[in-house]
Design brief:
Rossmann fold, 17 strands
Length: 307
């Protein structure tokens, strides 16, 4: 069975989520990757290096949903699976594609048990549903954070398809936070801060600790709404879903919406003054105390261990 993966990319570079999606679906059959961009050359080269990729297809044009839906619908006849990450583009285009093809999409897949059996979270991540999809073709979105990335070292051929993507909409502007920290959705270590930090200036403690650990930075919705952190650092049901090896939650009580975004974390360390906070009870390790005392001590200790 053949698989087409829609590549995620940003600022001319392949997103780390694509490697995880390829790793997730590689057991389903030969994987082709579709790269749609104004200049797909560099992105396609990165995609061709992913293990398990048989071929990379490129098309020039916008990655907005209406144009992608049209292109994907013409390519679907060649594939049994059309797959995207459960990011902003995938969540936008795949339901539209499924509706056009009169198929049921299976969204937010966190485990694949076989050719037509998939796990997906429901009830804000409080339960996992196993879905059996007996359709002739499958439209999937993959929660990239739940899977390990495909290895590199491949050299799949790159083929430009005779099609350009034309969208009725146009992108006016893109706003993102410049950072040298790892991608939040796929990072192995995440340091998250809550509204208890009290100000954007105090939130710099989170940034300092994250940089010392080589970690991504996360924030609760309350911290984002208060202006302490940018929107793209938000973790939770209405933010990014993460599954790091280690999540350090600082000053976060653990609202249900936030817990829904960290269900896949392997280990959780909570720093909080409240021993009864939901996230403290969920954590593997809890440090009860004032974060403004604990974090400086932790940074001092790390400075003595990490040059």
């Amino acid at each position: 069975m053949s698989v087409l993966v829609l590549a995620d990319h940003d600022l001319g570079a392949l997103s780390p989520a694509t490697a995880r999606v390829v790793g997730a679906v590689s057991e389903l059959g030969p994987v082709d990757v579709l790269v749609v961009a104004d200049d797909p050359t560099a992105i396609a080269q990165s995609a061709s290096a992913l293990s398990g990729v048989a071929k990379v297809l490129t098309a020039k044009g916008s990655s907005l949903a209406d144009g992608l839906e049209t292109l994907l619908s013409t390519l679907t006849v060649r594939y049994h699976y059309v797959v995207a990450s459960a990011g902003s583009v995938g969540k936008d285009v795949m339901p539209r594609l499924a509706a056009k093809l009169d198929l049921m999409p299976v969204t937010d897949v966190v485990a694949i048990h076989g050719p037509n059996s998939f796990d997906r979270p429901i009830y804000a991540g409080n339960a996992v549903q196993t879905v059996t999809d007996n359709q002739a073709r499958h439209i999937l979105t993959i929660r990239a954070s739940a899977f390990r990335p495909a290895a590199s070292g491949n050299a799949a051929p790159i083929e430009a398809i005779d099609s350009s993507v034309v969208s009725a909409a146009s992108l006016i502007a893109s706003h993102s936070t410049e950072s040298d920290t790892p991608d939040l959705a796929t990072a192995q270590i995440v340091v998250g801060g809550g509204v208890a930090l009290g100000s954007a200036e105090n939130f710099q403690l989170i940034e300092t600790l994250a940089k010392k650990l080589g970690a991504a930075i996360g924030a609760t919705r309350a911290a984002v709404d208060a202006g302490y952190a940018p929107n793209d650092w938000q973790v939770g049901q209405t933010g990014k879903i993460i599954a790091p090896d280690l999540y350090i939650a600082i000053g976060i009580s653990g609202a249900l919406q936030h817990l829904a975004g960290i269900q896949g974390a392997k280990k959780i360390v909570a720093i909080n003054t409240d021993p009864e906070a939901p996230l403290v009870k969920l954590a593997d390790v809890a440090l009860i105390g004032d974060l403004f005392e604990i974090i400086p001590q932790l940074l001092t200790e790390l400075d003595s261990k990490i040059p």
